Protein backbone atom coordinates (compact mmCIF):
# COMPACT_ATOMS: atom_id res chain seq x y z
CA UNK A 1 0.00 0.00 0.00
CA UNK A 2 1.27 3.45 -0.92
CA UNK A 3 2.79 5.35 1.98
CA UNK A 4 2.33 2.42 4.37
CA UNK A 5 5.20 0.41 5.83
CA UNK A 6 4.49 -2.88 7.59
CA UNK A 7 7.22 -3.58 10.13
CA UNK A 8 7.60 -7.31 9.67
CA UNK A 9 10.62 -7.86 11.93
CA UNK A 10 10.24 -11.32 13.55
CA UNK A 11 10.59 -9.95 17.09
CA UNK A 12 7.79 -7.45 16.43
CA UNK A 13 5.53 -10.15 14.99
CA UNK A 14 6.23 -12.53 17.88
CA UNK A 15 5.50 -9.96 20.55
CA UNK A 16 2.38 -8.78 18.74
CA UNK A 17 0.97 -12.31 18.69
CA UNK A 18 1.38 -12.60 22.47
CA UNK A 19 -0.29 -9.22 22.91
CA UNK A 20 -3.25 -10.35 20.82
CA UNK A 21 -3.95 -13.40 23.02
CA UNK A 22 -6.93 -12.78 25.25
CA UNK A 23 -5.26 -14.52 28.21
CA UNK A 24 -2.23 -12.17 28.21
CA UNK A 25 -2.25 -10.30 31.51
CA UNK A 26 -2.22 -6.52 31.88
CA UNK A 27 1.35 -6.63 33.22
CA UNK A 28 2.59 -8.70 30.28
CA UNK A 29 0.66 -6.61 27.77
CA UNK A 30 2.23 -3.41 29.11
CA UNK A 31 5.73 -4.88 29.13
CA UNK A 32 5.35 -6.20 25.58
CA UNK A 33 4.03 -2.86 24.39
CA UNK A 34 7.07 -1.11 25.83
CA UNK A 35 9.41 -3.64 24.23
CA UNK A 36 7.69 -3.56 20.86
CA UNK A 37 7.62 0.23 20.85
CA UNK A 38 11.42 0.38 20.93
CA UNK A 39 11.53 -1.89 17.87
CA UNK A 40 8.90 0.18 16.07
CA UNK A 41 10.77 3.36 16.96
CA UNK A 42 13.95 1.89 15.50
CA UNK A 43 12.17 1.33 12.18
CA UNK A 44 10.30 4.63 12.01
CA UNK A 45 13.55 6.55 12.56
CA UNK A 46 15.76 4.42 10.31
CA UNK A 47 16.20 7.12 7.62
CA UNK A 48 16.76 10.14 9.88
CA UNK A 49 19.37 12.54 8.57
CA UNK A 50 22.78 12.59 10.18
CA UNK A 51 25.36 15.29 10.45
CA UNK A 52 28.88 14.99 11.79
CA UNK A 53 30.64 16.56 14.71
CA UNK A 54 34.35 16.77 15.33
CA UNK A 55 34.98 14.84 18.55
CA UNK A 56 37.94 13.47 20.40
CA UNK A 57 38.01 9.83 21.41
CA UNK A 58 40.66 8.78 23.95
CA UNK A 59 42.79 7.89 20.92
CA UNK A 60 42.28 10.60 18.31
CA UNK A 61 39.98 13.17 16.73
CA UNK A 62 37.30 12.06 14.30
CA UNK A 63 34.17 13.31 12.48
CA UNK A 64 31.43 11.29 14.16
CA UNK A 65 27.76 10.99 13.09
CA UNK A 66 24.98 12.60 15.11
CA UNK A 67 21.30 13.21 14.41
CA UNK A 68 20.79 16.39 12.45
CA UNK A 69 18.30 19.13 13.19
CA UNK A 70 16.02 19.86 16.08
CA UNK A 71 14.89 17.19 18.49
CA UNK A 72 12.07 14.90 17.39
CA UNK A 73 8.57 15.25 18.75
CA UNK A 74 6.62 12.18 19.78
CA UNK A 75 2.94 13.09 19.74
CA UNK A 76 0.86 10.68 21.79
CA UNK A 77 -2.84 10.36 21.16
CA UNK A 78 -4.26 9.85 24.65
CA UNK A 79 -4.63 7.58 26.31
CA UNK A 80 -3.39 4.48 24.51
CA UNK A 81 -0.61 6.37 22.70
CA UNK A 82 1.18 6.70 26.03
CA UNK A 83 1.79 2.95 25.96
CA UNK A 84 4.08 3.46 22.97
CA UNK A 85 5.80 6.55 24.37
CA UNK A 86 7.77 4.93 27.17
CA UNK A 87 9.82 2.60 24.97
CA UNK A 88 10.33 5.27 22.34
CA UNK A 89 11.67 7.71 24.91
CA UNK A 90 14.11 5.07 26.12
CA UNK A 91 15.56 5.07 22.60
CA UNK A 92 15.34 8.83 21.99
CA UNK A 93 15.51 10.35 25.47
CA UNK A 94 15.91 13.91 24.19
CA UNK A 95 12.70 13.84 22.14
CA UNK A 96 10.02 16.39 22.94
CA UNK A 97 6.56 15.06 23.76
CA UNK A 98 3.18 16.30 22.66
CA UNK A 99 -0.07 15.01 24.15
CA UNK A 100 -3.26 15.08 22.17
CA UNK A 101 -6.47 14.17 23.96
CA UNK A 102 -8.96 12.76 21.51
CA UNK A 103 -11.49 10.17 22.52
CA UNK A 104 -13.82 8.22 20.32
CA UNK A 105 -17.50 8.74 20.96
CA UNK A 106 -18.65 5.14 21.23
CA UNK A 107 -21.93 5.86 19.42
CA UNK A 108 -20.86 8.12 16.55
CA UNK A 109 -17.24 6.80 16.46
CA UNK A 110 -16.31 10.45 15.84
CA UNK A 111 -13.31 12.05 17.61
CA UNK A 112 -13.85 14.53 20.42
CA UNK A 113 -10.79 16.64 21.26
CA UNK A 114 -10.27 17.62 24.91
CA UNK A 115 -6.53 18.36 25.26
CA UNK A 116 -3.63 19.56 23.13
CA UNK A 117 -0.09 20.42 24.20
CA UNK A 118 2.94 20.60 21.92
CA UNK A 119 6.23 22.47 21.54
CA UNK A 120 5.84 25.87 19.86
CA UNK A 121 8.22 25.27 16.97
CA UNK A 122 6.55 22.26 15.38
CA UNK A 123 7.41 23.55 11.91
CA UNK A 124 11.10 22.88 12.58
CA UNK A 125 10.71 19.32 13.84
CA UNK A 126 9.87 15.82 12.68
CA UNK A 127 6.69 14.81 14.52
CA UNK A 128 5.97 11.12 15.03
CA UNK A 129 2.35 10.62 16.02
CA UNK A 130 1.75 7.45 18.03
CA UNK A 131 -1.42 5.50 18.72
CA UNK A 132 -1.45 1.70 18.96
CA UNK A 133 -4.66 1.28 16.95
CA UNK A 134 -5.49 2.86 13.57
CA UNK A 135 -9.15 1.82 13.51
CA UNK A 136 -11.56 4.23 11.76
CA UNK A 137 -8.72 6.72 11.44
CA UNK A 138 -10.94 9.50 12.80
CA UNK A 139 -8.87 10.28 15.92
CA UNK A 140 -5.59 10.09 14.05
CA UNK A 141 -6.87 12.35 11.30
CA UNK A 142 -8.09 14.86 13.89
CA UNK A 143 -4.75 14.73 15.74
CA UNK A 144 -2.76 15.32 12.57
CA UNK A 145 -5.16 18.12 11.52
CA UNK A 146 -4.41 19.83 14.82
CA UNK A 147 -0.63 19.36 14.51
CA UNK A 148 -0.72 20.82 11.00
CA UNK A 149 -2.81 23.78 12.24
CA UNK A 150 0.02 24.40 14.73
CA UNK A 151 2.62 24.39 11.96
CA UNK A 152 3.86 20.80 11.69
CA UNK A 153 4.81 19.88 8.13
CA UNK A 154 7.00 16.81 8.61
CA UNK A 155 4.84 14.14 10.22
CA UNK A 156 4.87 10.33 10.43
CA UNK A 157 2.21 8.11 11.97
CA UNK A 158 3.16 5.02 13.96
CA UNK A 159 0.76 2.36 15.21
CA UNK A 160 0.78 -1.28 16.19
CA UNK A 161 -2.30 -2.48 14.34
CA UNK A 162 -4.22 -0.94 11.48
CA UNK A 163 -7.54 -1.72 9.80
CA UNK A 164 -7.72 -1.34 6.02
CA UNK A 165 -10.60 1.14 6.51
CA UNK A 166 -8.46 3.30 8.83
CA UNK A 167 -5.52 3.27 6.47
CA UNK A 168 -7.75 4.31 3.57
CA UNK A 169 -9.37 7.18 5.52
CA UNK A 170 -6.09 8.35 6.99
CA UNK A 171 -4.04 8.28 3.79
CA UNK A 172 -6.84 10.04 1.89
CA UNK A 173 -6.98 12.80 4.52
CA UNK A 174 -3.20 13.07 4.96
CA UNK A 175 -1.44 11.65 1.87
CA UNK A 176 1.77 13.40 2.96
CA UNK A 177 1.99 11.46 6.24
CA UNK A 178 3.60 8.02 5.95
CA UNK A 179 2.08 5.28 8.10
CA UNK A 180 4.13 2.63 9.92
CA UNK A 181 2.40 -0.37 11.46
CA UNK A 182 3.28 -3.87 12.69
CA UNK A 183 0.25 -5.41 10.97
CA UNK A 184 -2.78 -4.67 8.83
CA UNK A 185 -5.73 -6.71 10.06
CA UNK A 186 -8.82 -7.90 8.24
CA UNK A 187 -11.55 -5.36 8.94
CA UNK A 188 -13.36 -3.14 11.45
CA UNK A 189 -16.47 -4.53 13.11
CA UNK A 190 -19.71 -2.60 13.62
CA UNK A 191 -18.45 -1.31 16.99
CA UNK A 192 -15.28 0.06 15.43
CA UNK A 193 -12.97 -2.66 16.76
CA UNK A 194 -10.15 -4.00 14.62
CA UNK A 195 -10.71 -7.69 13.78
CA UNK A 196 -9.02 -9.99 14.72
CA UNK A 197 -7.20 -7.20 16.60
CA UNK A 198 -6.32 -7.32 20.27
CA UNK A 199 -9.36 -5.69 21.87
CA UNK A 200 -9.29 -2.23 23.44
CA UNK A 201 -5.62 -1.30 23.69
CA UNK A 202 -6.19 1.25 26.47
CA UNK A 203 -8.21 -1.20 28.56
CA UNK A 204 -5.67 -3.96 28.05
CA UNK A 205 -2.70 -1.83 29.03
CA UNK A 206 -4.33 -0.18 32.03
CA UNK A 207 -6.55 -3.06 33.21
CA UNK A 208 -9.75 -1.02 32.90
CA UNK A 209 -13.12 -2.06 31.48
N1 LIG B 1 -9.19 1.06 19.55
C1 LIG B 1 -8.81 -0.04 20.22
O1 LIG B 1 -8.24 0.05 21.30
N2 LIG B 1 -9.05 -1.25 19.69
C2 LIG B 1 -9.66 -1.41 18.50
O2 LIG B 1 -9.83 -2.54 18.06
C3 LIG B 1 -10.05 -0.25 17.80
C4 LIG B 1 -9.81 0.97 18.35
From TrEMBL:
Pathway: Pyrimidine metabolism; UMP biosynthesis via salvage pathway; UMP from uracil: step 1/1. 5-phospho-alpha-D-ribose 1-diphosphate binds at residues 79, 104, 131-139, 200. Catalyzes the conversion of uracil and 5-phospho-alpha-D-ribose 1-diphosphate (PRPP) to UMP and diphosphate. This is Uracil phosphoribosyltransferase. Uracil binds at residues 194, 199-201. It catalyses: UMP + diphosphate = 5-phospho-alpha-D-ribose 1-diphosphate + uracil. Keywords: Allosteric enzyme, Glycosyltransferase, GTP-binding, Magnesium, Nucleotide-binding, Transferase. The lineage of its organism: Bacteria, Pseudomonadati, Pseudomonadota, Alphaproteobacteria, Hyphomicrobiales. Residues 6-208 form the Phosphoribosyltransferase domain. Belongs to the UPRTase family. Its EC number is 2.4.2.9. Binds 1 Mg(2+) ion per subunit. The magnesium is bound as Mg-PRPP. GO terms for molecular function: uracil phosphoribosyltransferase activity. Allosterically activated by GTP. Its cofactor is Mg(2+).
Amino acid sequence: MNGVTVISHPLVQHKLTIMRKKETSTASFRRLLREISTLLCYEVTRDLELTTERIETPLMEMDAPLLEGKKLVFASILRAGNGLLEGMLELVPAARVSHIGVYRDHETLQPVEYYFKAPGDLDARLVIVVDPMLATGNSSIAAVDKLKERGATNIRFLCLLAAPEGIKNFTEAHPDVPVFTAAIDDHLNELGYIVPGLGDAGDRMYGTK
